[in-house]
Amino acid sequence: MTKVSRRQFLETAAGVTAASAFPHVWIRPAWAQAKEVRVLAWTHFVPAYDKWFDAFAEQWSSKSGVKVTIDHVPHLQIPAKIAAEIATQSGHDIVQLVGTGTEKWASALLDVQDTTDKLAKKHGGWTPLAENYCKVRSDGKFHAVPDFFIDFPGLYRKDLWTEIGMPNGPDTWEDLHKGGMKLKAKGFPVGIGLAHHDDSRASWRAIMWSHGGSEVAKDGKTITYNSKEVREALKFEKALYKDAMTPEVLAWDDASNNRFLASGRGSWIHNPISAYRTIEGSNKELADKIFVSLSPKGPATRRSFANCRAYGVTKFSKNQDGAKAFLEALVDSYRDAAKASTGYNMPFLNSYAKPPFPVISEDPKLKPLEQDAEYHFTTGYPGPLTPAADEVYQQFVMVDAIAQFATDKMDLEQTIKWGEEKIKAIYAKFA
Amino acid sequence: MDARRFWRRLKRDYGPYLPLSPYLFVVLFPFYWMVITAFKRDRDLYNLETAPFWFKEPPTLEHVKLLLEGTLFPLWLKNSLMIGVLVVFITLLLALPAAYALARMKFPGAQPLSTAMFLSYLIPSTLLFIPLSQVVRGLGFTDSVWALVIVYPSFTLPFCTWLLMGFVRTVPREIEESAQIDGCTRFQAFRMIIVPVIVPGIITAGIFAFTLTYQEFIYALTFISSSANKTISYGVTSDLIRGDVFYWGSLMAGALIGAIPVAVVYAFSLDHFIHGLTAGALK
Amino acid sequence: MSNGRELIGATTTGVAARPAAIRGSWFGREAVQGFVWIAPAFLYLAFFIAYPFFMSIYLSVSSARVGSPESHFVGAQNYTRLFADPVFWQTVRNSFVFTLGSEAIRLVIGLPLAFALNRSFKGKRIVQGIILIPFVIPIALSSLAWKWMFDSLYSVINWMLMRAHIIEYPWQWLGEPGLAMWSVIIMNVWRGFPFSAVILLAGLTAVPQEVIEAAKIDGAGPLRRFHYVVVPIVRPILLVGLLYSVVFSFTDFSAVWLLTQGGPYNTTHVFGTYAYNIGINAGDLGMGAAITLFIFPFLALIVILMLRFLRKD
C-alpha cells in the first residue's frame, strides 16, 4: 500500500539524515581523557577578560601538553550545571564557584591545600576574605583556589552631583539619601535594584552592615536580625527608596543599573566598574562624566559586599593534577588577569592587595578603588560564609524583607518578624 | 447593481479582517517591534527619546551578523529542528502500537496501564531533571544532542499515546474484524487499516510532539554544555546574554529566525491538524 | 457508531466486549500480544519517567543537598517545613492564578478569532501563519522579548500608553506586585491564544452545517443551538486542547523565570520557579523535590475537575 511504503521511506530517510546530522557525536571521545581539563566558568561581565582567559588557557595548553577547554555559561545557569554534574558524578574538571562559598560543596570538591599553600607562600598569604570563602571549617583545608572578588563601589555622575554641592559624590549613605532626593526632583534619581538578582542582595547588605546590623553574629549561628541596628537600617532603606529612587528598581535585573546609568538618567548606582566600561565603549561623552567613589559609609562603619570567585576541582575529575597545575598558573597570573579585566577583578593575595594595582592605580578616576580590599566583606558577615548563610542569600530573604517594608506591604515589626522567622527556619536546616 | 455586488464580494472576501484586525495587531505589534529591534543600532535602541517603531539612525545588520557569525545559531537551529523530527518519529514509533494495544486489545492490566500512561503526562520535567541526568549519564550520553533525543519522548509519549488511543477507537471494529476473517494477522490489520485511517490523528500528535520538543528549555540546560550541541532556546539565552549585557538586537533576530520557518510549516499543516482533531469527533 | 465521546472514553472505559465467534482466533494470543505491543512504550516510560519519579519521591523525604552525596531519610520533615513556609502557599496560589487566569482569557479571546477563521477569505493562509507566530516562537525567546517590552526603563508599551495619554507615568510591569502577575499572564496569553483559537476552530468545523441547519429548522435559538448541538460535539476536542494547554502552563518554569524570577518578593513564584530556586540555587534538593511533587496532586485535581465538567451530559 502506498501509505505504508511512504512511512517506511520516511523512516529510513530519517535514519540516514540523523546519522549524518550528528557525525561529530560519534567521533567525540568520552570525558575520560587524561590529557584534558575542562573548565566551567561564568561569562565575565567584562568581555575583554574572557578573551584573555581563553588565550591564556590556549597558551598554557601548548606549554604543558594538557588541553584546557573553557565553557562559558551565564552566571545564573552555573548552579544548575554544577548540581547536575555532582548528581551524575561526571562533567567538568574545574568548576567556578560564583558567589556561593566553598563549604556547601566541600564533599564534592578536592582538597587543594597544596596548591593554595604554594600560592600563599609566593604571594604573601591569602586575605581573610579569601580564606573565608575557600576554607572549609570541618577540616580547616582549602577546597577551592581563590581567584578574585568583585567590589561594589559607587559610580556617580560628577556633573550632576557637583551641581548640588557634592563634587566628589556621596561619602555617606545619608549623603546619598539627601543628594539623591534633590537629584530625583531634578529628574535624575539614584538606583539600587530591589528584586531577585545579585546586585540587590549585595547592595542592601552593604547598607545594613554599614548601619551595624547583620543577619547573624560572628559565631555564624546566632541570628541577630531582630536588633536595633537592623531596624535603623530598614528605616533608612525605606527612606532611600521612597525619596531618592523610582519604583522601577523593583523590576531590575543585574543589567538594569548599567542601562540606568547609560541612559543618562541615573545619577548614582552601586556597581563594579563593568557598567563604566560598557558606557566607555558606547558613549564616550557620558563616560567622561562618570566617576568612582568609595561605597558609602554608614553611621557605624563603612562596609560593602564582595562577590567572590574561586575554582574548585571536582573529585570525579580524571585529571586532578592537571587541573591543579592550571589553577596555580592562573592565579599566579593575577596581575595579567586584573589588567585584562580592566580593573574589575580584585585581589585575594596579600602581595596584590596593596597599591600599586594594575589599571586601578594608573587611572586617577579609579584610584578610590585601591582601598576596596579593606572594607569589603561577603555573605555571612560578621560570621563565616556558612552554607546556612548562603541559603539565606540564595532565597533572597534580605531583599524580600526590604522590598515588602519599603513598599508598605508590611510595617517594621512585621518585617523584622518575617525576616527573622525565615532566617531561623533556614538555619534550623543546618543545625 | 454593480456597486452592490462589489461590496458584497468585498465583504465575502475580506469581511473577516474587521474582527481579525485586533488580533493581527496584538500579534503583529510585538513581531514588528521585534523586527525593528533586530535592525536598530544600539545607540538608537538605548535612547529614551526616540520612537521605538522606526529608525532614527539608519538600520544595521550588525545584530544579525553577530547572531549568524558570532554565535553558533545556525547550528542550534539545525539541532532543534533535527531533534524535533527525530523525537516525533520515536514518539510515534512507540506510541502507535501502544495506543492500538491499549485501545483495542484485551489483556490483564490494560486499564490501569492506560491510566498510568495518562497520569505520567502530568509529571513535570522540573521534577525529573536531576534523577534523569543520572539515567542519561548511566547510558553514556553526556553533553550530546542524543541525550535530548532520548529524553524528550518522556513528555511527548504519554500525551501522544493518549491522543492516538482516542483516534484508534474511532475506527469501526467491523472493518478490523472483516480483515481478520479474510486472514490478516493483528499486525497486518494494524498496519494496513488502522494506521492509514488515523493519519490525521498521527499528524496531530506529531504537531503536538514537535511543539513541545522545540520549546523545551530545562533539559537542554542540564544536559548540554558545549556550544555546538545547544538547541535554539538554550543557545540563544546562554550565549547572547553575556554577564550583565543582553544583546537585545541579536536576541530578537534569533527569536524571529527561529520562529518563521516553523510558522510557515505550521501554517501549511494547520488544515490537517484541524482535520485531525475533528476527525476524532466526527465519524 | 463512534463519536466524540470515544475520546473522553479513552481515559476511563476499557475495551468493549466483542462477538464470541470472532474472539477465537485473535484472543488466544492476545494476553501476550498485548504486552508485546505496549512493551516498547512502557519500557521507555519505566526507565525515563517511573524511575526518576520514584527517585524524586525518595529525594523529597531525604536530606539531600546538591553539594553532599550522603543524605539520610528524614520522613516528612521537608513537607512540614514547606507547610510552614508562607512563600510556599503564595506559590500555590500564584500557580493557580497563573494557569487558570491565562486559560480563561485565552478561551475568551480565542473564540471570536475561531469564528473569524471559520470562514474562507482571501489571504487566509497567510493570516493563519501570522496568527500562529506567538505559539511557535520558543517560549524562552518570547519571554525575553516580552521582558524587553516590559522593561523598567525602555518599555515600548509604556512609551505607547504614555504618548496616548492613557497612563501618566511609566508602569512597572514586572516590578509592581499585582501588575507583575498580570504581565506574566499577558505574556502567557499572547503565546497561547493562537493554540486555543485553533482548538476552538477545530471544534467549530467539527459541527456539520446540516446539524446546525436542522436545529435552526427545529426552531432552536442561537443559545440553545450552542448548548445542545455545538457543545457536545466540541467537548472532546476542547478536552484535548485544554489538557495540553493547562498542563503546559501549570508546569511552566522558563516563562516566569526569565521574566521575573518569581519576584517581586515572590508574588509571581510558581511551582517550577520556586522549586528551582530552592532545589538548585539554594541547593536543597530534598525540599525542591517536595515542592515539585505538589504539582502532581494539584494538577490531577484540575484535570479531574475538567473531565467531570466536560463529561456532564
Account of the 3D structure:
The complex is a heterotrimer of chains A (431), B (283) and C (313). Chain A is α/β, with parallel strands linked by helices and 431 residues long. In chain A, 47% of the residues lie in helices and 12% in strands. In chain A, the strands form four sheets. In chain A, strands 2-1-3-11-6-12 form a six-stranded mixed β-sheet, sandwiched between helices. In chain A, strands 8-7-9 form a three-stranded antiparallel β-sheet. A two-stranded antiparallel sheet of chain A has the order 4-5. Chain A starts with a helix and ends with a helix. Chain B has 283 residues and is mainly alpha-helical. The longest helix of chain B is centred in the first third of the chain and has 32 residues, at 73-104. Chain B is flat and about 75 Å long.
Question: Which key phrases capture this entry?
Answer:
heterotrimer, A: 431 residues, alpha/beta, six-stranded mixed beta sheet, three-stranded antiparallel beta sheet, disordered N terminus, B: 283 residues, mainly alpha, two-stranded antiparallel sheet, 15 helices
- What percent of the residues of chain C sit in helical stretches (DSSP H or I)? over 70%
General shape of chain C? globular
Instruction: Give the number of helices of chain A.
Output: 19
Oligomeric state as shown: heterotrimer
Strand content of chain C: under 5%
Let me know the average pLDDT of chain A. Answer: 88
**Main sheet overview of chain C:** none
Measured on Cα atoms, how large is the radius of gyration of chain A? Answer: 24 Å
Outline the biggest β-sheet of chain A.
Answer: 6 strands, mixed
Overall shape of chain A: globular
* Low-confidence residue ranges of chain C: 1-24
Average pLDDT figure of chain C: 81
The structure class of chain C reads mainly alpha
**Largest interface between protein chains, with number of residues from each side:** B-C, 119 and 114 residues
SSE order of chain C, one letter for each helix or strand = HHHHHHHHHHHHHHH
The low-confidence parts of chain A are 1-32
> Helical residue percent of chain A?
40-55%
